Amino acid sequence: MLYIVGTPIGNLEDITFRAIKTLKEVEYIFAEDTRVTKRLLTHYDINTKIHQYHEHNKQYQIENILKLLREDKNVAIVTDAGMPCISDPGFELVDAALRENIKVTSIPGPSSITTGASIAGIDMRRMAYEGFLPKKKGRQTLFLKLVNEERVIVILESPNRIIKTLKDIQNYLGNRYVVITRELTKIYEEVIRGRIDELIPMLEKRNIKGEIVLFIASEGKNEYID
After folding, report:
1. How far is it, in rounded angstroms, from Cα 39 to Cα 35?
2. Phi/psi of residue 65, each to 5°?
């Protein structure tokens, strides 16, 4: 069995009993960053063997993991935080396993996307998830494709690039209403809301830290937006 296991996005207590039980019982855990995952495993006294599975070794590791699964070993995949296979490597492994009729199951857990959406205070019934934006190549092309997007656009961003991204949004999409959620489930969790022209001057005076989930409201009518 291949288990896709959700892990906390910040607060270590945000993990299910089932996830802890699974991580203790499988023979192998493959993690994006073993140093990050070891902190979680140590916290819950989990001693399962742990190996790396990330963007740069996934092609090599997929065959290794499939070999273990063919030998009837139970394997868990985790990422640094949240649900694997969304913005992190993993879908290729799941695809390969399913093609070989190997059973794959999800142990659901926290997600920065839904966590941020739940406290954004805007209508999230229709959204377009874009993940991390291209840093250079393809960035302008993507923004031009999003000009007529009527759903809430969801982007993951780092604190050192948030100002540039807001300026690009203003340039390509207009002075949109946006919601910035950062440090989710952590001590300094924060929700920042407003029009881009209001937020940029304010953020330029601050030292923003923590990973960000950014919600860009559509230009259509939204009863929750002034």
Report:
1. 7
2. -70, -40
Report the alpha-carbon distance of residue 109 to residue 105 in Å, rounded.
13
Q: What does the pLDDT read at residue 87?
A: 84
Strands (DSSP E) contained in 79-208 are 104-107, 127-132, 152-157, 177-182, 190-195
CA 138 to chain centre: 21
Dihedral angle of Cα 104, 107, 108, 113, to the nearest 10 degrees: -70
Region class of 68: left (phi > 0), else alpha (psi between -120 and 50), else beta: alpha
- pLDDT value at 220 more than 80: no
Give the global pTM.
0.90
How far apart CA 84 and CA 112 sit, in angstroms, is 12
- What is the distance between the alpha carbons of residues 107 and 117, in angstroms, rounded to a whole number? 21
pLDDT in tens, 39-60: 999 999 999 999 999 988 888 8
Phi (first) and psi of residue 82, to 5 degrees = 85, -155
Question: Strand 2-5's sheet: what is its strand order?
Answer: 49-52, 28-31, 75-78, 2-5, 104-107
Q: Which two tokens stand for residue 39?
A: 């902190």
**C-alpha–C-alpha distance, residues 166 and 177, integer Å:** 11
Q: Rounded to an integer, what distance in angstroms lies between the CA atom of residue 67 and that of residue 80?
A: 24
DSSP state for residue 7 in the 8-state scheme = B
Helix (H) or strand (E) holding 115: helix 112-118
Residues, the chain: 226
Query: What percent of the chain has pLDDT above 70?
Result: 97
- Please count the CA atoms within 13 angstroms of the CA of 108 that sit on its side-chain side: 1
